[in-house]
Amino acid sequence: MQRRTQVVLLCEDVEQRSFFEGLCKRLGFVSRVVRVEIAPPGSGAAEQWVRARYPGIVKAYRAQANHLTNGVLTVIDGDLAGVGSRLAQLDEALRTTGPSPRRPEDRIAVCVPTRSIETWLAWLCALDAVDELTRYKRDPGFERARETGLITAKGAIDGWFSVARPGEPPSLTAGRKELERLQA
Prior knowledge:
Helices cover 44% and strands 14% of the residues. By secondary structure, it is an alpha/beta fold.
């Protein structure tokens, strides 16, 4: 029998929240997102805010008596740094503030949409020729597709479960693997 996890979601913005809350529910192994922490608007770089909050969230998670049935999902844009660099930055944030880096038994997933969550939304909603260098957040074609309803969080969540197609962004492939950490 699979355990159902209650998750704390730490993310940069409402776009990430909308996608990952819906995805967690749809995946079925997460019973609910119990708390969401989003970088406040106007607080500077959202990725820096997430990195600053991450050690405290991890420490609180590990302090819970039932931490093996709960989890943490952190979402941070890769921007131009990429998945490996962001994961290293988060590990360093843990090392410098006390908690040890993630352990295999930790139900702590880190998704790093690169360049941003809009890249994943574009790919999952089946836009053509999606790459991790284009800034879709400001792309006129992406904005038109969003305005006409071709790109939505729900559509991206549906796309998560559709048949794989070649050329998936590497950060999305890594994100799929990361979410498996919440199933353990």
